[in-house]
């Protein structure tokens, strides 16, 4: 999420026409077309964040700026050349890193939250102790995971929450 991303299409010096067909999981389809004989680009229902990588006449790649979860879906590039027709198909999945918060509740338990991640984050604790886990799914496809580290009779000076996620791991420590 938030980064730019480029989808490649087979480059060829004999390009006659290139069409990107985009079918997002949410929302309507979008099409980008390029005709070399007219040096013309056509757009149908595409947001401003989806565009040709500069120089569509030499490289028919597609650039998505400021990637969002709504960009997920099927992307098909069709290239017509003097040598034949070629296509590439992609299924774009967007990773959303969690927002990590760590706090203490009123009973002296550490509470770790990995909010709005896609896919859901995994939470573990150091030292390992009893913990409870709650998950909440959101309409935009993200998931919040909350873990409560159960305090016991021993006096722990420091507790660390470790959040594991495909977009990167994080950790925070707290004394409750």
UniProtKB/TrEMBL annotation:
One Pfam assignment: V-set
Entry membrane topology: Single-pass membrane protein
GO molecular-function terms, A-Z: signaling receptor activity
Annotated SUPFAM superfamilies: Immunoglobulin
GO BP annotation list: regulation of neuroinflammatory response
Keyword Disulfide bond carried by entry: yes
Transmembrane segments: none
Name of the protein described by the UniProt record: MOR1B protein
Protein location: Membrane
Keywords: Disulfide bond, Glycoprotein, Membrane, Transmembrane, Transmembrane helix
UniProt domain Ig-like: residue ranges: 60-175
GO cellular component: external side of plasma membrane
Similarity section: Belongs to the CD200R family.
